[in-house]
Amino acid sequence: MSATSPFDQLVTNARTSGKEADLDALYGAFFALEDWNFIVSQNSSLEEAKPFIGVVDEKPWLFVFTDGLKATEYARTAGGFLEKDGHTVILRLASENATHLANQLYQHGVYGIRVNDGANGWYFDIPALDSIRKHLNL
Questions:
Q1: Thinking of the domain 34-126, which architecture would CATH place it in?
Q2: Alpha-carbon distance 50 to 30, whole Å?
């Protein structure tokens, strides 16, 4: 069963219309989130839990989710994230702190951010964070 969110429709609109306004609506909603959600590998201790960074096309990406349901859905589908009791450890960071973390990770070689990775996901390189915010007047 797929977790649906308002972002699913925003992604569909941005992909199908080709209009800048739809892309702006998607990113505007993303930057309006209070928290960004991150999954944690099942091999991490709670005391040292860190957001999952995966390699796609030979580049390291920070995996971000718009809500806990999207994070849990990805964890169940991808495997390697569920605890013995079947739960997913999800880190929630205030979006401002998460943006700061992403910029720090970029300095250590992380290329970009994958949001809600999967059919209704999207991605961008980390340096685009600031330019998108400026474009949206945030």
A1: 3-Layer(aba) Sandwich (3.40)
A2: 21
